[in-house]
């Protein structure tokens, strides 16, 4: 069965990124072709190898990229030109990169602080801008009111509890995480009427690419469960859109 659309995921890690990619490409779930982005080709190759164990016929292509605007613009151009994605329209784009910074405030430097924000927040802005451009390119610019409510796609940012509150020595981390949440809110308000669904999803708790006892008892999240949740978001119709989500395993403390 040919794929029903295109998904772009930046953040090809061994846990969250793997689960999202596997659910998106699986013919019984998303049945999407996936463009997978990460800084290192080794990480990309590892995710593809894992995903193809359960989805051997999946269309999943890799693109080494960091979060700089130049790199993302070039990568999105390469995705457009790739033969595996010919005639496929973008359905969902996911920004799910790691971002961690812990340092006593008086040991912080202006350069490190702003570099952290440029990498994570600037990367989110650049990825979102390229994604929105592609949604409009593939689905047209007419608003929902003129298309009979036809959705153009879903843009998801994976966040953490740091988007809501921060702790001592996590100044740069909290500033970055909360900034991306505000970016998502702004984009949702601007582009929802045009049919682009924007979500900020907080993942609070450990995510593992496993289906073991710790997942069954609600101690840790499974990566596939995150993928299924993101696919659920992507399949929501304009009659009801989730814009903010708090994901956690059952035993995670509030």
Cα distance spanning the termini: 43 Å
Fraction of residues in β-strands: 15-25%
**How many H/I helices?**
8
Give the structural class.
Answer: alpha/beta
The helix-strand sequence is EHEHEHEHHEHEEHEHE
Mean of all residue-level pLDDT scores: 96
For the biggest sheet, the summary is: 7 strands, parallel
Q: Name the strands of the widest sheet in spatial order.
A: 3-2-1-4-5-6-9
Q: What low-confidence regions span 5 or more consecutive residues with pLDDT below 50?
A: none
Helix content: 40-55%
How many beta strands in the DSSP annotation?
A: 9
Radius of gyration: 18 Å
Shape: globular
Structural descriptors:
254 residues, alpha/beta, 7-stranded parallel beta sheet, two-stranded parallel sheet, 8 helices, 43% helix
SSE layout and pairings?
Blueprint: E1 6-10, H1 16-25, E2 33-38, H2 41-54, E3 60-64, H3 69-81, E4 90-95, H4 110-139, H5 144-147, E5 153-159, H6 171-191, E6 196-203, E7 207-208, H7 213-216, E8 221-222, H8 223-234, E9 244-247
Helix pairs in contact: 1-2, 1-8, 3-4, 4-6
Report on this model:
This protein is an alpha/beta fold and 254 residues long. The protein is built from eight helices and nine strands. The chain has helices at residues 16-25, 41-54, 69-81, 110-139, 144-147, 171-191, 213-216, 223-234; strands at 6-10, 33-38, 60-64, 90-95, 153-159, 196-203, 207-208, 221-222, 244-247. Helix 1 (16-25) links the parallel strand 1 and strand 2. Helix 1 crosses helix 2, helix 3 runs parallel beside helix 4 and helix 4 packs parallel to helix 6. The mean pLDDT is 96.
């Amino acid at each position: 069965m040919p794929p029903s659309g295109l998904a772009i995921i930046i953040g090809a890690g061994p846990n969250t990124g793997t689960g999202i990619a596997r659910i998106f490409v699986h013919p019984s779930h998303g049945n999407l072709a996936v463009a997978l982005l990460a800084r290192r080709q080794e990480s990309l190759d590892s995710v593809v190898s894992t995903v193809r164990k359960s989805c051997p016929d999946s269309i999943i292509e890799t693109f080494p990229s960091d979060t700089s605007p130049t790199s993302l613009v070039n990568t999105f151009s390469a995705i457009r030109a790739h033969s595996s994605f010919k005639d496929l329209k973008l359905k969902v784009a996911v920004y799910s990169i790691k971002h961690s910074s812990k340092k006593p405030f008086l040991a912080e430097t202006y350069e490190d602080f702003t570099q952290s924000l440029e990498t994570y927040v600037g990367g989110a802005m650049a990825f979102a801008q390229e994604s929105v451009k592609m949604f409009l390119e593939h689905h047209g610019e007419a608003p929902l009111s003129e298309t009979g409510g036809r959705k153009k796609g879903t843009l998801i940012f994976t966040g953490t509890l740091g988007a809501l509150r921060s702790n001592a020595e996590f100044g740069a981390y909290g500033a970055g995480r909360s900034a991306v949440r505000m970016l998502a809110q702004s984009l949702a308000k601007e582009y929802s009427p045009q049919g682009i669904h924007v979500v900020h999803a907080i993942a609070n708790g450990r995510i593992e690419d496993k289906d073991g006892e710790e997942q069954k008892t609600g101690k840790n999240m499974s990566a596939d469960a995150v993928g299924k949740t993101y696919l659920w978001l992507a399949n929501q119709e304009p009659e009801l859109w989730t814009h903010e989500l708090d994901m956690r395993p059952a035993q995670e403390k509030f």
